[in-house]
Amino acid sequence: MRSEKEMFDLILGFARADERVRAVILDGSRADPEAPRDDLRDYDIVYVVSDLASFKSDPGWIDIFGERMILQLPDDMGAVENKQPVGYAYLMQFMDGTRIDLTLYPADRISEAAVTSYCYALLDKDGILPTEKFRDASHYLPTPPTAKEFADCCNEFWWVSPYVAKGLARDEIIYAKHMHEIVREELAKMLTWYIGLHTDFRENPGKYGKRWRKLLEPELWELLLQTYSGSTIEGTWNALFATCDLFRLTAPVLAAHFNFSYPRQEDERVYAYLESLHKQSMESRSIISEE
Fold first, then answer.
1. Could you list the mean pLDDT of each consecutive 10-residue stretch along the chain, which spans 291 residues?
2. 233-258 vs 218-225: helix axis angle to the nearest 10?
3. Model pTM?
4. Where are the beta strands (DSSP E) in the chain?
5. CA atoms of 62 and 54, how far apart (whole Å)
6. Which of 128, 136, 197, 205 is most buried when burial is the number of CB atoms within 10 A of its CB?
């Protein structure tokens, strides 16, 4: 794997030599002082360019960055006719393990750029970058829930949970796991708010919960791990109950703090139904195995 110095020399060397590149911005984990410092971090780069069309018309220009393992052009994927992106991205994974997520952004529209994460200028030939917006991670901080957001989260969580149980009772493991992921998405919202509450909404919990281990109490972290299951019916039952238990530990804390109404009656009724269906399911499976 190439060193960080080699990669920055390559990225900035091209930018300095090509007159179309007017500025270079470093974004993402390598610009974030709180991100883990390892070699697996991507190079999230923005080239601010004077002629974006000339780059797009010559796809081979990106070969300068090295031998690619795989390339993705997200702005050319999906319903392209409905997309009108301002910039254009090249996501490049190289054979040596390094990766560059490179976005071209037109210089004449730089004032429209949503610079909301930790980032800073590596190069600015014309002094065009809005540096007052840089190094601001507020976009990634959790925000307190409204009463409706909290109520909707609770309702969806307890509404979908019986679908998981029904799938497990019917031995429909794939269906049950799909529904469990929906339930876990609502748990993730609640945990994000819970972490926000305990950090004054000033800590970035990380993409997809990358920093939850650091920000959750150890016992809640251990319970969170139990919400993941293997391929067995009983393992998924256990994961479902762990998911419910963690939700029941965190949601009422938020309700009390923000003076929201927690649906205690729905909670107890649904949880009792899950326990009943689990018991019936296990008894039924036991009878079948004995036969």
1. 95 97 89 74 94 94 96 84 79 96 92 65 88 57 93 98 96 96 97 95 81 93 94 95 98 97 97 95 61 38
2. 140
3. 0.72
4. 21-27, 43-49, 68-72, 88-94, 99-106, 120-124
5. 13
6. 205
